[in-house]
Amino acid sequence: MATSSSTPRRRRARGEGLAEVKLDLHPLQNRWVLWFFKSDRGRAWQDNLHQVTMVDTVEDFWSHIQLASKLSPGCDYALFKDGIQPMWEDSRNQQGGRWLVSLAKQQRHCELDRLWLETLLCLIGDSFEEHSREVCGAVINIRPKGDKIAVWTSDAENQASVLRIGQVYKERLGLSMKTIIGYQAHTDTASKSNSLAKNKFVV
């Protein structure tokens, strides 16, 4: 008799515990999708892009983020708001652009992971205040000659928002006043090689 009567209580306790765990999660302001790209010239570009997971809580974020320095050359990570794909062709990106941080190969093992993590924290923490609505996501490119980190925004002509995002981003990365980062419109980058694209704004 004692055994059978105690079983329901144990089940209720377990259920209550699960509910408490769910309540303890910390929701993000936006839902984000983590993407992975691995270059394969034998396949279409879109076929090399894979959705890894979706995160909408702080706990989800920390359980899925990997070190960028562990990526092989030719690979990318991207974190974008749900509903926006990390490509120029997406309607939310077509009229936008990116703040670009270029890193020397030597920085891969001393600065890359810190800068990428700080970039992601800027995104999920809405660090750009009211201008965060202009942010689409961020991409990190690992390449043999050097790596790049970029924050993408939706409207390259919204000068006030673009500049404020750039100023906050540069400050959060801890870059010196002498370090210049540039903003490039996707329309310019798409029609030229990255090295020829002109900076629309700088901070």
How does this model look, in words?
It is a single chain. 31% of the residues lie in helices and 28% in strands. Strands 2-1-3-5-6-4-7-8 form an eight-stranded antiparallel beta sheet. The longest helix is centred in the first third of the chain and has 22 residues, at 2-23. Mean pLDDT is 89; it is low at 1-14. The chain has a single domain (27-202), classed as RNA Cap, Translation Initiation Factor Eif4e (2-Layer Sandwich). Strand 5 and strand 6 form a beta hairpin. The protein has helices at 2-23, 58-64, 112-124, 159-173, 186-191, and strands at residues 27-38, 49-57, 75-81, 97-104, 135-141, 146-153, 182-185, 201-202. With 203 residues, it is an alpha+beta fold. Keywords: Initiation factor, Protein biosynthesis, RNA-binding.
Layout: helices, strands, pairs:
Blueprint: H1 2-23, E1 27-38, E2 49-57, H2 58-64, E3 75-81, E4 97-104, H3 112-124, E5 135-141, E6 146-153, H4 159-173, E7 182-185, H5 186-191, E8 201-202
GO molecular function, one term: translation initiation factor activity
Family: Belongs to the eukaryotic initiation factor 4E family.
Protein name: Eukaryotic translation initiation factor 4E
